[in-house]
Amino acid sequence: MGGGGGGGLGRGGRGAYLLLLPLLLLAVAGAAAGKEKEKGAFGKLRFRRESGTFKVVQVADMHYADGRTTGCEDVLPSQVAGCTDLNTTAFLYRVFRAEDPDLVVFTGDNIYGADSTDAAKSMDAAIAPAIDMKLPWAAVIGNHDQEGTLSREGVMRHLVGMKNSLSSFNPEGIEIDGYGNYNLEVSGVEGTPMDEKSVLNLYFLDSGDYSTVPSINGYGWIKASQQVWFQQTSSSLQAKYMNENPKQKEPAPGLVFFHIPLPEFSSFTAANFTGVKQEGISSASINSGFFASMVEAGDVRAAFVGHDHINDFCGKLSGIQLCYAGGFGYHAYGKAGWSRRARVVSVQLEKTDNGEWRGVKSIKTWKRLDDKHLSTIDSEVLWNRGSNWRRRKNPVVNF
Question: What is the pTM of this model?
Answer without folding.
Answer: 0.88
